[in-house]
Structures are given as C-alpha cells and as structure tokens.
TrEMBL record:
Ranges of residues in domain ABC transmembrane type-2: 28-254
Name this protein carries in UniProt: Transport permease protein
Mode of membrane association: Multi-pass membrane protein
Segments crossing the lipid bilayer: 30-52, 64-85, 106-133, 139-161, 173-191, 229-251
Lineage: Bacteria, Bacillati, Actinomycetota, Actinomycetes, Pseudonocardiales
Length: 257
C-alpha cells in the first residue's frame, strides 16, 4: 500500500469516527429516520393492507422491501444536512490547513451515512419481525439483500452529497429527499403495477424502485429473481457512478484554493 493510500484510509477512518460520535451524541437522528418508515409499515399493514389485493399470503412480506427503500431515502437527507453544516461552519477550511487527504472529508460523510442507515434498517427489520414478517431466504439470499441495500444506500448517499455541496439553505439541502421517499409509493412496493392506470403503470414498471423491490421480495421469499436483479444492480451502479462523478467535480470546485 502506498503512503498516499495509507494516509487517505487513516484520515477517512479518523473523520468517520468524528462524524459517528456526533450521531452517538444525538441518537434521535437514527430513531427519527426509522419512525416514518415504521409508521408507513404499520399504516399499510393494519389500516390499508386488508383492502389491497397483492396475491400474496402475507402483506407484510410483500411491502417490506419498499419500506426498506423508504428508510434509506429518508435517512440520507441527514447526510446532506451534516455536510451543509460542515461547509457553512468552516470546518472544511480548517481541515485544508492540516495534512489531511482532501477526499477523506467526503468519504467520512458517506461512511457515516452507510453506518447510520444500516442501523435504521436493522431497527425497521426488527419491528417487521415483531409484527409477523417471516422469510424463506437462506444465507446467500440474506447476504444478497444486504449487498443490494448497501449498494442502494451508497448510491443515494452520493446523490445526497450534491445538494449538500450546492444548497444555499438547510431546507434546500434536505428537501431533495422528499421525492426519493415517495418514489417507492409509485412502484410495485405496495400494490401490483397491473392495477395502475396506463401512464402511471408505465412509469412504475420502468423506474428503479420497482426492480429493486421485486428483487428483494423474491430474495426474501427464496424464489428465483430472474432478470430483475441485473436491472436493480444496473440502476444502483449507474446512479452511484453518476452521483460520485458529479459530487467530486462539485467538491473540487467548492474547495478550490
């Protein structure tokens, strides 16, 4: 390992520890992130679930993948928020006066987002298990679900970096997450797309949430995933690649000089 790579890893670990300590001092951030998805889950199961025909024996098993996506979409708004506050507080200028690898600052926010979102997902999964979720998945299927959720979280986190770097206000930094939270609602997450009217059905069937939801649902059930998994991976990797490239360009411009 080169000295530069070793320094980057060491700086990233140190700065990630700093960000995680901030979260540990205010655990309400993670709890708040988990509350809305749990509320959605309880609403759909106990209020609306009886009126929705999905062809599935267990509605909680049907809608849980969509709830997991909503959990991440609501959680990454805090990434943009924390990055915005760091920039406004001048912490990045302070870091630049120190021998710290420049990109380590961004990666620390990304890794903090990944850890905090995984904790939120674990909380949501725990509630789902308490109210009756059961899975026929084996170890490989569970590992595949975890891998997809990590990739999805990284993709949305790098997407969150963009408003974190460019927003003029706190509201502007966090508002971008609202469309992402509602995107799973217009997908196969809660009702089959066949029940939707023409234009809505077309959109639902060709947006990323549907492929990801269908893949996770089949993995939980222990059934073949078909081509959905490749479509889901293509969406996640595509969003991740574009968001990462744009974020790095914006970050270099923002910290130039």
């Amino acid at each position: 390992m080169t000295v530069t790579a070793s320094r980057f890893i060491g700086d990233t670990v140190t700065l990630t520890g700093r960000s995680l300590r901030h979260i540990l001092r205010s655990p309400d951030t993670i709890i708040t992130t988990a509350i809305m998805p749990i509320a959605f889950m309880l609403l759909f199961i106990f209020v609306l679930g009886g009126a929705i025909q999905t062809g599935s024996d267990s509605y909680i098993s049907y809608q849980l993948p969509g709830i997991l996506l909503i959990t991440v979409a609501s959680g990454i708004s805090y990434t943009a928020y924390r990055l915005f506050l760091d920039l406004k507080g001048g912490i990045f200028e302070r870091f630049r006066s120190m021998p710290i690898a420049r990109s380590a600052e961004l990666w620390a926010h990304v890794l903090t987002s990944l850890v905090s979102n995984l904790i939120s997902l674990a909380i949501v999964m725990g509630v789902a298990l308490l109210i009756g979720f059961r899975s026929g998945a084996g170890m490989l299927e569970w590992l595949a679900v975890v891998g997809i959720m990590i990739l999805f979280t990284l993709a949305l986190t790098w997407l969150a970096i963009i408003p974190g770097l460019t927003a003029k206000t706190v509201d502007g930094a966090t508002a971008f997450a609202y469309p992402l939270v509602f995107l799973p609602l217009i997908s196969s997450a809660f009702v089959p797309t066949a029940s939707m009217p023409g234009p809505v059905r077309w959109f639902a069937e060709h947006q990323p949430a549907t492929a990801i939801v269908d893949t996770i649902r089949n993995l939980f059930a222990g059934t073949p995933v078909g081509a959905d998994i490749w479509i889901a991976l293509a969406w996640c990797i595509g969003i991740l690649g574009v968001a990462y490239a744009v974020s790095m360009v914006l970050y270099r411009r923002r910290t130039a000089g």
